[in-house]
Design brief:
By secondary structure, the protein is mainly alpha-helical. It has helices at about 5-20, 30-35, 40-50, 75-85, 110-125, 130-135, 145-160, 170-175, 175-185, and strands at about 55-60, 65. Strands 1-2 form a two-stranded antiparallel ribbon.
Length: about 190
């Protein structure tokens, strides 16, 4: 089984959504820019994910897509199956019942069935939370890469670092103050 580009990008899209707080929406444009993926292609990928209920769309000025459950509750397998359908290595294992007329005589079927089991066990053992933990930290804090994430990372770093004192709360509410701190070599 060779996984398609759509499957690889679907995992990246879902990992980006997992980066945000539960219930937060993220625009596909933002994910497109951060992951350097075609917006049109992401629109094609998100459709089957929404159809099976893995993501939900929200309309409006703060709209976008969000996960429907916690990242730890998703597996790579369910994401891949939403995009690919079956991930079986051969067609006769791709449905509930093997309808191949040669299945009774096929001496290689046990090999393929074993491979199918290994593939499914592995992809079902990896959670979206684990994939999202491998995402690189956001290095910039501008609109194209998610000011919400940059600010969150800055606040986490500021709270745990003895090297700097956090900017006053009123200054952090004004986007330019904390954003310029990041762009001038702050913690990120």
């Amino acid at each position: 089984m060779k996984f398609s580009t759509k499957s690889r990008y679907a995992l990246r899209l879902m990992a980006e959504l997992a980066r945000y707080a539960p219930g937060s929406t993220v625009s596909l444009k933002e994910i497109s820019e951060r992951q350097q993926l075609s917006l049109k292609y992401l629109e094609q990928i998100v459709t089957p994910l929404a159809r099976v209920g893995l993501v939900k769309s929200e309309r409006g000025s703060q709209g976008g897509y969000r996960l429907t459950k916690a990242p730890a509750d998703y597996t790579a397998g369910e994401i891949l199956r939403a995009i690919e359908g079956s991930v079986a290595p051969i067609p006769c294992l791709g449905s509930e019942t093997n309808e191949c007329p040669m299945s009774d005589q096929c001496f290689t079927l046990p090999f393929w069935a074993g491979l199918d089991d290994v593939i499914n066990q592995y992809i079902d053992s990896v959670t979206l939370e684990q994939l999202a933990q491998s995402l690189p930290a956001v290095k910039e804090g501008c609109g194209c890469c998610g000011t919400k994430v940059a600010r969150l990372l800055w606040e986490q770093e500021a709270a745990s670092s003895s090297l700097a004192t956090p900017i006053e709360e009123k200054a952090t509410m004004g986007h330019p103050s904390w954003l310029s701190f990041i762009h001038t070599g702050g913690f990120l």
